[in-house]
Structures are given as C-alpha cells and as structure tokens.
C-alpha cells in the first residue's frame, strides 16, 4: 500500500474541551491544517466510542457532540481544509470493526494498558461491557478505513496505534495488502503533553474538576487563575518562592512569550527574569497571576468570539458536520468495497463468483 499523508484524529464527546486538550493537541491540529502538508485531514467526533462507557447516558453524548463541534470551529479548525465528521453516522466504520474483530484474540484485548487502566478507573472489573473491551478494534477501523498514516494523539493512545498496526498486518497477511501501518505523532513540548490542573494535580481533567474550559467566560477564567496552586511556602511577598511545581509558572512556560512581557509587564524582559525575581523574593503571586490572566485572555478571547458566532449560527454547524460526514462516508464506502473484495465476500459485484458457481454446478 502506497502511503499518502493522511491525518486523522478524534475526540470522545464526553465534555467540553479544555486548555489541556488545547495545548496537547488542538493547537497542533490547527498548525498542521495551516501548513497544508497532507493529502487529506480528518477530525472525528468519536461518539460511538464514547458510548462504550456511557451507553446508559446517551443524552450526555448528544449534548457534547455540539459542544465539541463548537470547540473545534472556535479554535480555528477550518471545514474547508479539514473533514469534520461524526463517527456513528459512518456505518462503514461499524462494518469494518466487525471484520477486524476476527483478527484479534480476547487475551490481546485484555493486555492493552490504556484499556486496562480505564477498566479499573470505571469500576468495570466485575462486569466489563464487551463493547468497551473491543473499542481499540473500532479505533483501528477509524484509522484504517481512511488509510490514515499520521495520527496526532497523546501518549496514552500509543497502545491503540500498536493494536491498529497489528490488525493491519494481520489483515494484509490473510487477505490482500490493502492497509497501511499508521503511526502516532506526539506533542513535542513535554509540559503540553500533560498540562496540570489549576489545583496542581498532574493532569487537567474533567473528572477532577480542575479545568479551564475553552468556553469559560472572562470572569470564570479570572477566578480560576486567582485560585491556582502556587508555592504554599511563599506566604509573604518578600519570601523567596519556588517556580518548580508552581502551576502559575508552568502555565507561563506553556503560554507566554517575550511580546507578552513587552505589552503587559515591561519591567521584565522575559519569563526567566520574572522567575529569578520570584525565586529571590519580593514578587507577589497576585502580580504573576494577573499577568497570566492577560496572557490567557489573548488566546481565549478570539476563541470565545468565534464560539459566540457559531452558537448564533447552529444551522451552519450542523451543515458542516453533515457535509463532513457525507464526505467521510464516500471515502469509507470505497474502502469497504475493497475490503469485501479482498475477503471474497463481494458476491453480487463479482462476476467471477457467478462463473465459479456455474462451473461447479453445471
Ligand atoms: N481514543 C481517543 C481518545 O480517547 C479518541 C479516538 C477515537 C481517536 N478514534 C480515534 C483518536 C482515532 C485518534 C484516532 O482521545
């Protein structure tokens, strides 16, 4: 199989997207989109996958489908350049998943470390829904149906890519060589890979309630930054402070640049100078936090504006999803036809089949 540059990525619509998603992957998607170094780029709203652990709460998925679509559009994913589509509406994905299931063993599924830790976290140990255990197979279908070779994801998705490559190889060996072997592209910046929550815990996550959401209004962002975890031993302004593990500085590492200093805090040339002053003592948390608010607002305000536009024009949002999904289905249909042909189960489209049975019975 000849590889073309085809990028595919997706998100489960289980909540609004936050700054962790933004620096960990969304920003990079916009960069890739604008660099244009690809044949095709897909962004998928993985609602079927989200249902594998939310099967009893479909309303949650239904509500967040639009939230995620609004988040995509407001951060600048451009439907002219990127095919945004809804997983459950591409039936070809379900079809491919069913054939792929023959190519994996139960014990292989049970070894996936990401799934293993999710099973614990979701208390699925004693009653594990089969659909949840096999979601990596459905994810392999997400990727392989579109011949996608470049998959920008977080480190936790590596095991999915590993399983996808195994399924691809296995199919190619048994039937015909029609699938490529995709690889993950991880974020370069280590901190951005795992942005800590505002409470200082290792990861920004909805279930920990420590997120700044892309859709948060100005007042909320301000409140959240003001409550951020800093250095608990930095009590008086004169005290020397620590910047390691101080979340306000972690965020400045990720979000600020020299031009922010010029604009909002000209008494310092750059972040190094600010850190040095903090470590020496004599710099208060409030001043640093106020600076961070301005830095974040510069990023968030345009996103908010765009979101407001799309919230007023929901028909456009639906039209974008509908069009993207139709496009994905067309590509998917062609691939499924090739899959069935290579498996020899395309009976009615195959004149050889009629010839074969004729020869056998007449
Ligand atoms: N599992 C991914 C997540 O939880 C979402 C996802 C579904 C995905 N299908 C995909 C990511 C295909 C990349 C490619 O974030």
From TrEMBL:
Would I find Transit peptide among this entry's keywords?
A: no
Q: Single GO cellular component annotation?
A: cytosol
- Return the Pfam families for the record: tRNA-synt_1b
In terms of superkingdom, the source organism counts as Bacteria
**CDD domains noted in UniProt:** TrpRS_core (cd00806)
Q: Which GO terms describe its molecular function?
A: ATP binding; tryptophan-tRNA ligase activity
- One GO-annotated biological process of the protein: tryptophanyl-tRNA aminoacylation
* EC annotation from Swiss-Prot or TrEMBL: 6.1.1.2
PROSITE patterns associated with the record: AA_TRNA_LIGASE_I
Q: Which UniProt keywords apply?
A: Aminoacyl-tRNA synthetase, ATP-binding, Ligase, Nucleotide-binding, Protein biosynthesis
The Swiss-Prot or TrEMBL record describes its family as follows: Belongs to the class-I aminoacyl-tRNA synthetase family.
Q: Which NCBIfam families does the UniProt record give?
A: trpS
Protein's name according to its UniProt entry? Tryptophan--tRNA ligase
According to its UniProt entry, this protein's organism is Anaerococcus octavius
Designated gene of the protein: trpS
């Amino acid at each position: 199989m000849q590889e073309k540059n085809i990028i595919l990525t997706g998100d489960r619509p289980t909540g609004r997207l936050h700054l962790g998603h933004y620096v960990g992957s969304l920003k990079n998607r916009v960069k890739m989109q604008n660099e244009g170094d690809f044949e095709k780029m897909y962004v998928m709203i993985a609602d079927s996958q989200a249902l594998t652990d939310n099967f009893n709460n479909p309303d949650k998925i239904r509500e967040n489908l639009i939230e995620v679509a609004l988040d995509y559009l407001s951060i600048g994913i451009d439907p002219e350049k990127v095919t945004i589509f809804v997983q459950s509406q591409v039936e070809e994905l379900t079809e491919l998943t069913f054939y792929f299931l023959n190519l994996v063993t139960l014990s292989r599924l049970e070894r996936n470390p990401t799934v293993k830790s999710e099973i614990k976290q979701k208390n699925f140990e004693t009653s594990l829904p089969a659909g949840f255990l096999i979601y990596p197979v459905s994810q392999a279908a997400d990727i392989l149906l579109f011949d996608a070779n470049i998959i920008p994801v977080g480190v936790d998705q590596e095991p999915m890519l590993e399983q996808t490559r195994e399924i691809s190889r296995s199919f190619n060996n048994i039937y015909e060589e029609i699938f490529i072997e995709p690889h993950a592209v991880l974020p370069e910046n280590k901190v951005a890979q795992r942005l800590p929550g505002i409470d200082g815990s290792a990861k920004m996550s909805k279930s920990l309630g420590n997120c700044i959401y892309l859709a948060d209004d100005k007042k909320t962002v301000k409140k959240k930054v003001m409550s951020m975890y800093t250095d608990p031993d930095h009590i008086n302004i004169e005290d020397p402070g620590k910047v390691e593990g101080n979340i306000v500085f972690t965020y400045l590492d990720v979000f600020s640049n020299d031009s922010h200093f010029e604009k909002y805090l000209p008494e310092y040339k750059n972040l190094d100078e600010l850190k040095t002053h903090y470590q020496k003592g004599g710099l208060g948390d409030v001043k640093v936090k106020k600076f961070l608010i301005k830095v974040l607002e510069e990023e968030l305000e345009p996103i908010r504006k765009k979101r407001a536009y799309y919230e007023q024009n929901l028909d456009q949002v639906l039209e974008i999803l509908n069009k993207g999904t139709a496009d994905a289905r067309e590509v998917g249909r062609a691939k499924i036809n090739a899959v069935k042909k290579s498996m020899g189960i395309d009976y009615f489209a195959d004149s050889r089949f009629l010839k074969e049975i004729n020869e056998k019975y007449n």
